[in-house]
Amino acid sequence: MLPLWRDKVRFVLCRDRLIVLNYQGGRRPRIHSKQVFPYTGQETGWQPLLGLLESVLKSKDWKTADAMVVLSNHFVRFLVLPWNEALLSGAEKMALVQHRFDEVYGEASADWDFRLSEGSFGSPSIACAIPLKLLKQLKAQFETSSLRLKLVQPYLMTAFNACRSELGKEPTWFVLAERDNICVGLLQKGHWTSVRLRHVVSDWFEEALQMLEREALLATDGNKYNRVFVFAPETSGMSKIKRAPWAISQLKLNPPHEISQADMRNYAMAAAGM
C-alpha cells in the first residue's frame, strides 16, 4: 500500500480527555472509527493522560497504520525569537533557543525538548518546548504497538496549518480556543511575531479580547492591527463577534461526512487539517 493511502490514527492529548480518530489516508479521508476517552482522575499534568493512552493502545488490535499525536497547548510552551543576523550552526541555534527558554521559564525548562521553526530571511522564528519525559514515554509506548509514530505536534501548529490559506499575508491576530485555554498570536507576512497562552477561567471570548488588548499595547512596531481570525471549533457559539475596534472573523472547520456538525465539538481537535 502506498504511504499516501495508509491508514492513519490521530491521538489528541488534552488536559481532561484523549481523542482518537482512525481514518484512511488519501485525498478523501474516510473515518473508520472515533472515540473520546475522558479522564476523571484528580492527578494533574500529562502523566495520567499517557496512562490513558497506554491502555487504549493495548486494548485494541490496531492495524498497521501511521500515528500522529496532537498535544493540547496546555502541555506546550512557545517563544518567538527575533531575526538574528549572525550565521549560526544548527547546534548554536538550538543552544540559543534553550537559553531563551531558560531566561523566561527558569529551571523548569531544564528538562524540556525544544523544536525550532525558522522563519524566512529577515523574519522571526517560533520555538516550542514540551517535557522531554513526555516525548520519550510517547515514543516508548508506540514502539510496543503496531502503529508507527510519525509526528508529535502542538495543537497550535495543527490548527494554523488547517487555517493558513484563509489568513493571508496581512497582519493578523490569530485566536485559538480550546475548552480550557486560549492562544493569541500575531502573524505578519505569514510569520509569527508574538504568541501567548492563557488558561481560561470564565468566558473564553472575553478573556481573548483582554489578551488582544494587552498584546496590542505590547506590539513593538508601534502599529495598531485590528484584523482578527478566531478558530474555536470545539467551543460554544460566538454571539459577540462584533466588538470595536476589532474586525473579527470566525474560521469554520468543515467536518468529514462521518462526523455530524453536532458531534464536531468532540472531535474538532483531531479533525483539523484532515
Please provide a written account of the structure:
The protein is an alpha/beta fold. The protein folds into two domains: 213 residues, ATPase, nucleotide binding domain (Nucleotidyltransferase, domain 5, 2-Layer Sandwich); 56 residues. The protein is 28% helix and 33% strand. It is built from six helices and 13 strands. The chain has a five-stranded mixed β-sheet with strand order 3-2-1-4-8, sandwiched between helices. It has a five-stranded mixed β-sheet with strand order 11-10-9-12-13, sandwiched between helices. A hairpin with a 3-residue loop joins strand 1 and strand 2. The two termini are 19 Å apart. The mean pLDDT is 89.
CATH superfamily annotation of the largest domain: ATPase, nucleotide binding domain
Proportion of residues in helical segments: 25-40%
Strand content: 25-35%
Compute the number of structural domains. 2
> How many separate helices?
6
The ordered string of helix (H) and strand (E) elements is EEEHEEHEEHEHEEEHEEH
